Amino acid sequence: MTVNDAQFEYDLFVIGAGSGGVRAARIAAGHGAKVAVAEEFRIGGTCVIRGCVPKKLLVYAAQFSDDLAHAGDYGWTIAGATFDWPTLRDAVARDVDRINLAYTSTLNTNQVAQYLDRAEVTGPNSVRMKSTGQTVTAKTILVATGAWPIMPEFDGTEHCITSNEVFGLPTLPRRVVVAGAGYIALEFAGIFNALGSAVTVVNRSDAILRSYDIDLRDRLLTLTRARGIAYRFHATLDRVEKCADGSLLVHLGDGGEPVPADVVLVAAGRRANTAGLGLEQAGIALGHRGEVPVDGDGRTACPSIYAVGDVTDRVQLTPVAIREGHAFADAQYAGKKTAVSYDAIPSAVFSQPPLAAVGLTEAEARRQFAAIKVFTSDFRPMKNIFSQRVERGFYKLVVDGETDRVLGIHMIGPDAPEILQAAAIAVKAGLTKADFDATVALHPSMAEELVLMR
Ligand code: NDP
């Protein structure tokens, strides 16, 4: 359905060429809309350029450390193995360039005009390019500007980095302090620890990965401590001091000894990227976390402006932004309304070892259901069987005691994210524990534990 309206230059102007924005632009253009997108940094956005994708490549690099440690147990002699950060960093950067080009060529193929500039909203149907001052009009504007790392206030923030800068470090830091204990903090703590840095995680409370099941969090804490990651809990960053030799000294609010570091990575959450975006020019009041409030269709308080992805601060995950962008484009330009479902969204933390979950935690289920049953499996992954390191995996199924429906699956151990993606289908489909029990195990595998819990 083409909607070209001569009054405007474009049917749709998308601000932000990340996961949600690119998907919306491509699908809308495919439905016949005249589309433009503006991107102030690089086409691809956080996930592709400085998030999920380069992070996962670093996670693979980190896992070699484990494999090398185990190799001797399996009869291999690997003499003189060393790690070179610039080789990895540059290989990752080249892959990011490749994906950036692929995204750009997708937009080109779909005839989506690209403005490599910062666009700011100047009214319900107009945006202005920051560097050229050019005004562009569109019947509809889609805000897909994502989120930006939060830097809490303390002295010496200028000496710290966020996940935006971590991929470009000139050398592998000998000592890393990671502030925060969420996804980014624990993923990078695991990466640097495995690559050989001394890592200290500093967190304001003693709760890591707050949204995950407590048994997974406890297990991850135990296992990462055993791998050598130090934790300083109930500690805030008071001051980061730059010493004469260029190294850093991190002063904490817990009254304990300051921590020496070469890199301080702050991972204290991400906030909707709306500063200076001009949405108030179109009558849109931001939420208290700077997010763009939207209705179920992604529409803001201004009828011609929509928003998708992290900027709406609903679920900060790439696949969700992609779904929201796709649903928006289908609804607006093909008359096909698809509701984005927010329940049973699987997620993973690519820590070492990784953990993954879908559905309700045990605590959430106990609050919401009259009777629940919990099944657990605490096992030694076969791959570790020869290893001196006793690192056990743990799986948990949370089941509604009345209907037998599986409400949640939680797992920590090698390949947990790969296993959980498939298991999430069962939770989304509302399958029961009896369905799991009726499924024959795939032996020998780690995934088989899922159907063997009694
Ligand atoms: P998270 O929300 O996961 O964790 C933030 C951490 O910082 C928490 O430990 C939090 O503590 C702490 N914190 C928050 N505010 C402050 C503050 N002012 N001072 C000190 N500490 C603070 O955020 P991340 O930055 O790790 O990641 C952002 C988002 O990106 C995630 O929520 C996730 O949606 C997404 N992401 C997903 C990944 C994946 O799917 N694997 C990987 C990376 C990111 P407290 O618990 O007390 O609030």
List keywords for this structure.
single chain, 454 residues, alpha/beta, FAD/NAD(P)-binding domain, Enolase-like, domain 1, five-stranded antiparallel β-sheet, 30% helix, 22% strand, globular, binds NADPH dihydro-nicotinamide-adenine-dinucleotide phosphate
Structure write-up:
- Helix 1 (19-30) runs parallel beside helix 8 and helix 3 runs antiparallel to helix 4 (85-109).
- The protein has helices spanning 19-30, 45-50, 52-71, 85-109, 163-166, 183-195, 214-226, 318-334, 362-368, 416-428, 433-438; strands spanning 10-15, 35-38, 113-115, 119-123, 126-129, 135-143, 147-149, 175-179, 198-202, 230-232, 237-242, 248-252, 259-261, 263-266, 270-272, 305-307, 347-349, 355-359, 372-379, 393-400, 406-412.
- Helices cover 30% and strands 22% of the residues.
- The mean pLDDT is 96.
- It has 3 domains: 10-148 and 271-333, FAD/NAD(P)-binding domain (3-Layer(bba) Sandwich), CATH 3.50.50.60; 157-267, FAD/NAD(P)-binding domain; 353-451, Enolase-like, domain 1.
- A hairpin with a 2-residue loop joins strand 4 (119-123) and strand 5 (126-129).
- The strands form 5 sheets. Strands 1, 2, 3, 4, 5, 6 and 16 form a 7-stranded mixed β-sheet that branches.
- The protein contains 11 helices and 21 strands.
- It starts with 9 loop residues before the first strand and ends in a 16-residue tail after the last helix.
- The chain has 454 residues and is an alpha/beta fold.
- The structure holds NADPH dihydro-nicotinamide-adenine-dinucleotide phosphate.
